[in-house]
Amino acid sequence: MELSELAAYAQDKYHIREEHKWAEFPGFSVLTDPKTGKWAALLMRQWDYETGTELQRCDIKCGKECLAEFQAPYLSGAFRMKGQKWVGVTFDERTDPEVVYKLFDTALRPQEKHGHMIVLESLRGNYSKGPNVNQKVYGDTAIPPKKASTNRGGESVQGRFTSQGGGFVQSRFTSRGGEIEIEGYTPPRVQTQRIGWPEKEIPRRILEMMQLYEYGSSSFEMKCRNFYKQGKFMEDYEDDAPWNGEFSRYFTTYHDLNLHLLRGYFAWRTHVRKGDYRRITTSLAYMYLYELLNGIGSQSPQESFARMKEFEAGYLDSGIGDAAMRENLHKWMKEFAILHGAPKETVVSFMDQALLARDHDLEILRTPQDHTDEEICSALNSLTGGKIEKSPVFTKDLIRGAHLFAAVWRYMSVHCREQNRDLFTACFGKRKSYPWRPLANAVYYEQEKRSDTEYVINACRRYVYSDGAWKEERYDELFFDKYRAHAVVHEADRQLRRYLKVGHYLREKQGEEWIRPFVEAVIRQDQEEIAEAARPKITINLSGLDKIRRDAMITRDSLLTEEETRETAAPLAAFTAAPISTLDALHTQILVSVMRGEPVDALIRSNHLIASVVADTINEAMYDEIGDSVVECDSDDLTLVEDYREDLEFILGGN
Fold first, then answer.
1. CA triplet 245, 249, 252: central angle to 5 degrees?
2. Fewer Cβ within 10 Å of end Cβ, the chain: N or C?
3. pLDDT digits 0-9 by tens, 505-517
4. How many whole angstroms separate alpha carbon 103 and alpha carbon 122?
5. What is the DSSP letter of 309?
6. Alpha-carbon span 216 to 354, nearest angstrom
7. Reduced to 3 DSSP states, what percent helix, strand and coil does the chain have, rounded to the nearest 5?
8. CB–CB of 154/65 below 8 Å?
């Protein structure tokens, strides 16, 4: 059993909501008596670092005398509260929900210690005037026969009695604080007197259902098993005996009902399955939902889920049900969908959207390199209570402000290490496993053993089934270091305001000195980026180089004397390499000379060329063939890239 089940019981039965009164102790909460305003239970959730598990305990104001009445290993003296009125309960797999609920009921009904009511159902009678007409009610303190004792203070009443109708034979009853315990009860045959109706007048199908009930264990698991077995037997049963009245019981099953209630329920269910939703007492409406959760009356989980949605639309949306029932239904639909592997969008639609939004923010800050400045800034702002959006760094220039805050988080995510932890882990902890008991506050029986599996909601939350138990893996707010995350935002805001000269300057806070060098590094990087952007950029249009070369050659030829022209033409005439269409004869000769290791300085100067331009011309001409530079220029010296010698020899076709 878990504390959440006790909280759900308190809400459903008494409309008491769990109150978290201490922000600094999020694992502690209270359940308060709505009549007196006093605490009825103190709930405690604490993490055990040695075992890696969550410890769940509570103190209930039911009186220490309950320890003598309910002797169980999970009951003890109070853990936190003082006095004789408090009892401690440890929540684990041994804890019996029915016992805990009784203790909580006692805590809310301390005034009922004086006076008792004993109800004995008769075996036969006429029910024409309603289901309670044959019940014998003793409204005052029971007066026991001889050999019995009574405490006039009302704390306990004991006695013996014999029922002439059969069913109770020399039974002993005990009353403590308004609760009646009867021992020695012998159920005759199928215990038809329990429902107050002669056996011959009970519909055969209901009688057969009663015979399926297994007595023995009083555990909640056995209660669920009996409900499932009887429900599957009655899943196609219909009735036409309506019932109107009030009935209240937590975790209602068929075994809890008399014949009027049973037939009335099945008659109501007959109408519901035809789409005719009528009002019925809340406890019986819950029993219909228990049927759907157990697949009673459905051919598949998908059909059960569809009928739950139909119930919400036809029953709750019509104003018949209440908000608590809708809240429970959504919780069960989410858990049911996970258990049966429904599409993720189905599960997500029934989850707490604020919780999913927090998961999304955590994932952004965990992997900032995969997200934009705006996403990082928004997530950081959300998880630190809106600190960033109020900063003048952000309000003055949204884009620049978001960029700088995001840059700080990105830089620190890479370079910051606190006790061998990265920044995210230091601020928000690690993803941990917690027990998850789906449908724990419903009558639900797991029919088959399931194999190990997992259901992933997002990168921060998933449900894992292993070794026969479910676990929820999540980042829990209990382990968030909110001071650290707030400190990062505050120090970044302080330095960025001074850097951008906006708003009023913030004071340094003691304990935030470790953040300062990271923010300073981001500011230096931003300054370098601004300086680089301010430098003038020179762009060379290479497409105009050919025209420049042609114009230069024309100018050169016009300046040559006749003798210089003959000197230039002589080596060209002697050149025997095959011409290249993209390269003129002069540059081809220079390339061949470079390949032969001959000096080309005089040839370049005599033709009024520049060595670097010659290299660019040759490389550009050969790029389509080679795909890379074939000549390098270093201080006006041209050298061949030897990797391409064979390729050039093949292209030139010469020696």
1. 100
2. C
3. 999 999 999 999 9
4. 30
5. H
6. 45
7. 45, 15, 40
8. no
N- to C-terminal Cα separation, the chain: 93
d(CA 117, CA 141): 7
Q: Go through the chain and tell me how many residues it has.
A: 655
Instruction: Using the Cα atoms of residue 497, residue 500, residue 502 and residue 504 in order, give the sign of their dihedral.
Output: positive
Q: How many CB atoms lie within 10 A of CB 426?
A: 18
For 378-431, the three-class secondary structure string (H helix, E strand, C coil) is HHHHHHCCCCCCCCHHHHHCHHHHHHHHHHHHHHHHHHCCECCECHHHHHHCCC
Collapsing DSSP to helix, strand or coil, 168 comes out as strand
Q: Using the CB atoms, write b or e for 66-90: b if 16+ within 10 Å.
A: beebeeeebbeebeebeeebbbbbb
d(CA 63, CA 190): 38
Q: What is the DSSP-derived secondary structure letter of residue 566?
A: H
d(CA 11, CA 17): 5
Q: pTM of the predicted model, to two decimals? A: 0.57
For 201, which DSSP code? G
Distances (CA, A) of 21 to 18, 37, 91, 577: 9, 14, 21, 95
Q: Give 150-156's long-range contacts (Cβ < 8 A, gap of 24+).
A: 153/113, 153/114, 154/113, 154/114, 154/115, 154/116, 155/65, 155/113
Task: Pick 217 or 99 by higher pLDDT.
Answer: 99
Residue in 342, 362, 361, 358 with CA at minimum distance from that of residue 350: 342
Helices 259-272 and 204-211: crossing angle, nearest 10°?
110
For tokens 């076709």, name the residue: 653
Task: Estimate the crossing angle of helix 3-14 against helix 97-108, to 10 degrees.
Answer: 50
Tokens of 323: 């908000």
Q: What are phi and psi of 19, to 5 degrees?
A: -110, 125
Number of neighbouring beta carbons within 10 Å of residue 244:
11
Looking at residue 578, its pLDDT comes to 57
Q: Give the mean model confidence (pLDDT) for residues 540-545.
A: 61
pLDDT in tens, 200-216: 678 999 999 999 999 87
Confidence of residue 173 (pLDDT cuts 50, 70, 90): very low
Instruction: Give the rounded distance of the alpha carbon of 653 from its chain centre.
Output: 73
- 276 Cα distance to chain centroid: 36
Calculate the dihedral angle through the C-alpha atoms of 4, 6, 10, 12, rounding to the nearest 10 degrees.
70
Residue 58: closest CA among 83, 76, 33:
76
Six-digit token string for 312: 């919400």
CA dist list (Å): 146 to 152, 179, 180, 185 = 16, 22, 19, 20
Quick one: DSSP state of residue 150? B
Helices 323-339 and 282-293: crossing angle, nearest 10°?
Answer: 10
